[in-house]
Amino acid sequence: xxxxxxxxxxxxxxxxxxxxxxxxxxxxxxxxxxxxxxxxxxxxxxxxxxxxxxxxxxxxxxxxxxxxxxxxxxxxxxxxxxxxxxxxxxxxxxxxxxxxxxxxxxxxxxxxxxxxxxxxxxxxxxxxxxxxxxxxxxxxxxxxxxxxxxxxxxxxxxxxxxxxxxxxxxxxxxxxxxxxxxxxxxxxxxxxxxxxxxxxxxxxxxxxxxxxxxxxxxxxxxxxxxxxxxxxxxxxxxxxxxxxxxxxxxxxxxxxxxxxxxxxxxxxxxxxxxxxxxxxxxxxxxxxxxxxxxxxxxxxxxxxxxxxxxxxxxxxxxxxxxxxxxxxxxxxxxxxxxxxxxxxxxxxxxxxxxxxxxxxxxxxxxxxxxxxxxxxxxxxxxxxxxxxxxxxxxxxxxxxxxxxxxxxxxxxxxxxxxxxxxxxxxxxxxxxxxxxxxxxxxxxxxxxxxxxxxxxxxxxxxxxxxxxxxxxxxxxxxxxxxxxxxxxxxxxxxxxxxxxxxxxxxxxxxxxxxxxx
Length: 517
Hints:
The chain is an alpha+beta fold. It has helices at 4-11, 15-36, 42-68, 72-87, 91-97, 108-129, 148-164, 170-184, 199-226, 241-244, 253-258, 291-301, 314-341, 345-368, 376-379, 412-424, 426-429, 436-457, 461-470, 476-487, 491-500, 507-512, and strands at 132-137, 143-147, 187-190, 195-198, 230-233, 250-252, 277-280, 305-307, 310-312. The strands form three sheets. Strands 2-1-3-4 form a four-stranded antiparallel beta sheet. A three-stranded antiparallel beta sheet has the order 6-5-7. α16 (412-424) runs antiparallel to α18. The longest helix has 28 residues, at 199-226. The N and C termini lie far apart (71 Å). The mean pLDDT is 84.
């Protein structure tokens, strides 16, 4: 019997070389844009183009050879280690039945299959290396797979020509290219179906497919020698809903297929399935769980836990945790590529901020869901402490749309600084050619916009709700009416006062945050 964490560990054995390959190819594209980014005439790029594309083909081959040069012996060793553990699981049943179990190394039939499966897996991994590329958004918004050679050509052409003709600046080009690559990830395509997957996902599938074939052989061979056609399926936490209904129970061989979907992509031992099954002898074997225990455990799995206004079952929580890990891996790549490209410091700092924000969300979410953090999934990229460095920039004068990613994340003091700075800009934003009343309306609208945006940026949204209740945003008409009533102003005086005090903020609040003497 193989435990879920053992199956998962084997499936991820090739993650590191696959991610190394991905990082090297992305870095190479960025490096070529950086080297050629100083070309100022499109004609000069055409002269240099064939050399760069030729060199890129040579380097791609080297990257693939360095990272995906697996041989049969390596894969055989990978499988043998985990299958040997599962093989010994039925030892006690053999003793009970008074039958000798063929030692693992002397089981010729199994060893032959182990060799055949290893050869098959190596072939699958080679197929992956022959169909690499990126998913690129098309004009209609759909994603289409672009083979690696074509992607290099298109990306370098668009980048260098855009810079040379002045259509785009270097920083804009580099940000766009990096975002496109990291959002896609290095992918491999099945040309028969047109379906593409990230290379690490495709490698895991190849490994798990081979592992499932070997597991089936061990289980069925042992069952045959033990004289049983029954099997117990393992139970594990976080199983997908379609698997939860049949996990942890005993089935006949035919029911493994009809009930559990053995042999299908979505069933037992299929894609991303961490279940195993092993021989069960009625009257001798003891079920691991009673029906009552299974019902209770599954009910616990399906209990909803609230986080951030949304409820999650254990399976849903694990899916979100995996998604956050994928996001963090992409963000780490973005930081490294922006640094390598010599991008603007603000863009690098913003990338670090986004990564730290996701990381904090990951920690808080995992704690709320009572899930262990699996940081190794994120840091297996070999990039080390890539998020370390300057992570704070002065957002005071930044336009709201440029810092939308900080929504709900800024401290009260930083929000106040931002609000004061933007209110001080109001006089320069008003059309002074308009009548005074129109100018006053503009000033009021701008002030209200800044107030709303400032509250959107606040990390403490409970305090924001209280502010909305105690100090609501007021319309121009209501402000005029209040000034007339409270200060005894005429209508024209009230309008003039709105314009005059447009940049005024409360001194008591400013003092509270140390922003005024």
